[in-house]
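Moderator note: this is an archived Q&A kept for reference. The question asked for a predicted structure of one protein chain; the sequence and the answer are reproduced below.
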Amino acid sequence: MLLLALVLVYGWSVPGQYLWPHGWSPTQEGLLAGGIQALRLVGIVLSLQWLLGGMAREALFEGMHVLAAPLSFLGLDRRRAALRLALTLAYADRFLDERPGWRRLWRALSDDREWDAGVPLALQWPPSALGPRQRALLSAILLGVIATLVLMLR
């Protein structure tokens, strides 16, 4: 339903040629742009589902720790950032498993008492060192991002 709403919003908000001769008609270009955006969204959700479904929590934590390395250049603690993300995922898993109603969820989130996730985190600390393939892949991704930014500035 959300994807259909996305397509329809694009259909009526992007200028172009009308589908039928009326001012309130959606445009062909808008519907096409909405369809492409919906396909992108489905692709992102499917790739995240595939990634998170096939990865252990420890490997996910290590990946977050590695990808947060640029935060140390800004003076932020990447270990703390990765641990907070891991705890957020634990809370999200618990909420998705319980599927509480909105009222119960709102009461739990607005309660001043400390809340225990009840999900044990088996995290290995410090994370294992990167292998040569992982370093090469991260370097290639970084070079790709830099090249994209340089090309965008031209």
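Archived answer notes: The helical segments are 2-13, 28-53, 57-67, 69-73, 78-98, 102-110, 132-153.
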